Each structure stands twice: as structure tokens, then as C-alpha cells.
Amino acid sequence: MDKSIMIWNKVISHTGLFQNIISDRDPKFTSALWTNLHNLFGTKLSFSTAYHSQTYGLAEIMIQTLEDMIRRFCAYGL
């Protein structure tokens, strides 16, 4: 739960709250951390269909965007 609160304080409070995350069932987004985040923020986690190239691309873009945002906020010590 501590990491969930840190992500809220350091990232989402600056960028705004997401409403839905589309995941390709990557363990990053099915972990206890992300389950806590979804419960804390009231957001929804949607899973893409296996081997569906269009949703796979969307999930990969979203993952990369989130990783970039978190990396930048950590680099600036926010």
C-alpha cells in the first residue's frame, strides 16, 4: 500500500487520474500493487484479448507511457 500512496503523491496528483487501463495481462498490472492502486483510485483494469494485435499495441503504448512518466518524476525527485 505504501507504493500505491507514493505513486499517487508523486505521479497521479501531477498528471491526473486515469479511468481505465488496458493490459495484456502483464504481471506488472496484475500485481498486488496495481490491485491496490485500482481499489484506492476507483479505476478499472481491462484485459485485452489474447493474440489480438490492435489491443496488444495499445497496451504496449500505455505501459511505455506510464513507465516514462514514472521515470521522469523519479528523476526530478518529485
From TrEMBL:
**Could you confirm whether the keyword RNA-binding appears in this record?**
yes
Limits of the Integrase catalytic domain: 1-78
Alphabetical GO biological process terms: DNA integration
Please identify the protein, giving its name as recorded: Integrase catalytic domain-containing protein
Q: Which UniProt keywords apply?
A: RNA-binding
Q: Which residues form the signal peptide?
A: none
PANTHER family, sorted:
PROTEIN CBG26694 (PTHR37984), PROTEIN NYNRIN-LIKE (PTHR37984:SF5)
Domain of life from the UniProt record? Eukaryota
InterPro entries associated with the record:
Integrase_cat-core, Retrovirus_Pol_polyprotein, RNaseH-like_sf, RNaseH_sf
Q: Which GO terms describe its cellular component?
A: nucleus
Q: Which SUPFAM superfamilies does its entry note? A: Ribonuclease H-like
Organism from which the protein derives = Austropuccinia psidii MF-1
GO terms (molecular function) for this protein are: RNA binding
